[in-house]
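hey so u asked for the seq, here:
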Amino acid sequence: MEKEREIIEERKRKLKNWLNNRYNIWIILVIMAAIIIRIYYVNMAGDQTMWWDEAEYMATAKYWALGVPYDINQQRPPLFQLLAAILLKFNLSEPTIKFILVVLPSAFLVLCVYWLGRELFNKRVALFATAGTAFVWSLLFWTARFQPDFLSVTFQLLSILFFWKLFKTNKTSNAIYAGFFAALAFYFKISGLLVPLSILIFVLFKDGLSFIRNKRYWISLAAFIVTMIPFAIWQYLLFGKPTAFAPSYIGGTGIGQGWDFGWMTLNFFYIFPKIWFFILFLIGLGLAIFKFGLSFDILLKDKNKRLNPYIFSITILIVLVLFYIFYIRGTIEDRWVFLMIPFIMYFSGLGLDFISNKIGKYSKLISAIFILLIFAFFIYAQTQHATQLVKIKKDTYLPVKESALFIKDISSKNEIVLSVSYTQTTTYSERKVITYAEATPDEFHAILEKDKPSYIVVSILEPHHPTWIIQQVTYNDGWGIIMPYFNSSIIVNSNNQIVGMDVKPSIVTQDKYKFDLIYPEKQFNGLFVYRITYL
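ran it, structure tokens below
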């Protein structure tokens, strides 16, 4: 009993000391705020329709959990879908699954920003960066979407954290954790490989070719490879080779496609932090470059001095930027470059720390007011952007969801649906879906003869419909929809009001197929559903 009391007292003492640290209290408040605001935006988004990628993740999860027919995409790492499938097996609802797999990881990512920032710089800079990350509009918006980016970026940050600890301590445990988390990040998003690439480039700068003699690096690589073995086996068993995902990225969306360079990647340095934190970012980056310049000759002579958090952070940012500008190219989505956000915030935190300390030499009260005002302007701008974006995007693709649910209600499980909205129709109808995207008339009729689908969804919401099925045209005073195959058309004026509508309720083609219009039952909402009868 006496020993148990001593243990309890020791735990109380440690808890009291922990709570006496003001940074611990602040970080608790920041994480609580991060969770609350994320729940707020998820509730604002409500039961919004999943977009293509989201529906692909859910369709795969339903394939594994419920047996819904679906062709798994070989370029998608499987862990997010597998976790969703396990939760579906427990009959959890879509909002609950989203909370577990998206909202909580989004908030945990914020905490990881603090842990990494504390190791790289100091607690004050880490706290500033963490508070900034908690309210970035892009993170808030995507928290309401069903996607694995937060889980991937969280493990990327943990991998970077343990790599940095490895550089400082050369401990075997840090090497193992660094490699393990790097691989785990890959299990959610292929872009997780950018972390090992960034680390390799920094190691070459820090150690030169002598890094080959550091057995801790090889241990980290071994931990990475061992963790990746189940993924390689999965790829081999399902798709025939352990690197089946690679062709989608090598020469797929990258080099040699004739796309413009992805210079828009640079815009995110401003788009993410907005004006005030962008100014702080420039100040923090300027300070880092200035310090780097002053010690450049020392860095060339002394390898030990190269373990520099400024250089380390800039290296990661440069690798990310160059990869998306010169390899991925084209249009760059904000969620692809989430890993930029923590490091942008670290430099913003350095800038804020520098200015507030200068002010604090004259008045700590004014310094505190300055910090509060900066965050007030920052949070207002971020939440305004996030709110507007969530509301604008909330009802996108809603007709696709409603039509798929309509088909689910009227069809049997063995019936087949034709739809270009392949992933979304599969997710919501839970039926076998065949896409006819960009099919020729002969290919379309071959599908009808072979698979005997019962329904076809014709939509202006997806861009890859064959033009002989449906096409959108513009006029001087409006626009129109032409459906040559169904001998139908709709004329819309410049105010988006339907002024002419000739949609046949039933049509027979080639004396073989009869198409009966069954959806929408009332007003046109962007798509039609036809029941197919074989004569």
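The CA atoms of residues 376 and 509 lie 63 Å apart. DSSP finds 20 helices and ten strands in the chain.
lmk if thats what u needed
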